[in-house]
């Protein structure tokens, strides 16, 4: 039987691209996301393109009961994942912390940290019982280099790295691998979500920049999970060519 990948945030951006890249490699897929319609559309598309074996699990990773029920269903129906991709995450707003909406603060913390913790906790015991598996957590260069207007988002992504490091210590006697993927500027719907649907403001983020694409990150994830058993890529930082640190990007002026 082919290997299984469980992916959160699987209907857009890096999660969607990762699902496609792993489907192309013959993985069975268990896809989780909040939007049921997009989830079903994504699954059908992957079945059509790759003849992929895809199971879908509508899930809000912030909901502990839902996470536990989803993990139990996946373990019963598909088995323990060979690859667990914790992609679900978001940024909200780009204003000074004292002006940040409390709702935005809670949503970032609950999705980027709480959701990551809950999903990993739900699957890790089964992976350890089998003594194999690879956890891939999507962090960000924002977790390495803070920038203005993003105190909460940067803090949540710093938590992704330290959490991954802690898990790696806890499972050191097993064959479980833990990789933190830390992308820089990636042109997805990320900024549109950050700016609450403001398409013009989101588009301006990428003007004049040859930004990374979701497929670039997905290809790196496939590379990481394809290494021999002896090789564990613990941290991978990926930036655009004209990006130096988190929010330091050189933009080409319009002619």
Give a structural overview.
By secondary structure, the protein is an alpha/beta fold. It is 45% helix and 17% strand. The chain has 8 helices and 9 strands. The protein has helices at 13-24, 36-50, 64-77, 102-130, 151-170, 190-194, 199-206, 214-225, and strands spanning 4-8, 28-33, 54-58, 83-86, 133-138, 176-183, 235-238, 243-245, 248-249. Strands 3-2-1-4-5-6-7 form a 7-stranded parallel sheet, with helices on both faces. Strands 8-9 form a two-stranded antiparallel ribbon. Helix 1 crosses helix 8 (214-225) and helix 4 packs parallel to helix 5. The longest helix has 29 residues, at 102-130. It starts with a strand and ends in a 6-residue tail after the last strand. The mean pLDDT is 96.
List the helices and strands and how they pair.
Elements: E1 4-8, H1 13-24, E2 28-33, H2 36-50, E3 54-58, H3 64-77, E4 83-86, H4 102-130, E5 133-138, H5 151-170, E6 176-183, H6 190-194, H7 199-206, H8 214-225, E7 235-238, E8 243-245, E9 248-249
Parallel strand pairs: 1-2, 1-4, 2-3, 4-5, 5-6, 6-7
Antiparallel strand pairs: 8-9
Helix pairs in contact: 1-8, 3-4, 4-5
Question: pLDDT below 50 for ≥5 consecutive residues: which ranges?
Answer: none
| DSSP helix fraction | 40-55%
Shape: globular
Main sheet specs: 7 strands, parallel
- Report the end-to-end length measured between terminal Cα atoms: 55 Å
Would you tell me the structural class of the helices and strands?
A: alpha/beta
Overall pLDDT metric: 96
Strand order of the largest sheet: 3-2-1-4-5-6-7
Q: What is the tally of beta strands?
A: 9
Run of helices and strands: EHEHEHEHEHEHHHEEE
As a percent range, the share of strand residues is 15-25%
User: What's the total helix number?
Assistant: 8
- What Rg do the Cα atoms give? 18 Å
């Amino acid at each position: 039987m082919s290997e299984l990948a469980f992916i959160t945030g699987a209907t857009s951006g890096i999660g969607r691209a990762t699902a496609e890249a792993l489907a192309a490699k013959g993985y069975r897929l268990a896809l989780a996301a909040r939007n049921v319609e997009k989830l079903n559309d994504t699954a059908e598309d992957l079945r059509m393109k790759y003849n992929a074996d895809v199971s879908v699990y509508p899930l809000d990773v912030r909901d502990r009961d839902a996470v536990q029920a989803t993990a139990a269903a996946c373990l019963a129906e598909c088995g323990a994942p060979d690859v667990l991709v914790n992609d679900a995450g978001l940024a909200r707003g780009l204003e000074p912390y004292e002006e940040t909406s409390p709702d935005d603060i809670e949503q970032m913390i609950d999705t980027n940290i709480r959701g990551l913790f809950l999903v990993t906790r739900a699957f890790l015991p089964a992976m350890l019982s089998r003594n194999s598996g690879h956890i891939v957590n999507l962090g960000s260069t924002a977790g390495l280099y803070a920038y203005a207007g993003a105190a909460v988002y940067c803090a949540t992504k710093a938590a992704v790295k330290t959490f991954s490091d802690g898990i790696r210590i806890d499972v050191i006697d097993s064959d479980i691998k833990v990789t933190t993927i830390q992308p820089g500027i990636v042109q997805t719907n990320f900024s549109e979500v950050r700016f609450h649907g403001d398409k013009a403001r989101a588009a301006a983020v990428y003007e004049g920049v040859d930004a990374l694409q979701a497929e670039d990150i997905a290809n790196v994830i496939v590379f990481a999970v394809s290494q021999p058993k002896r090789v564990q890529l613990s941290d991978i930082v990926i930036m655009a060519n004209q990006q130096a640190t988190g929010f330091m990007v050189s933009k080409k002026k319009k002619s």
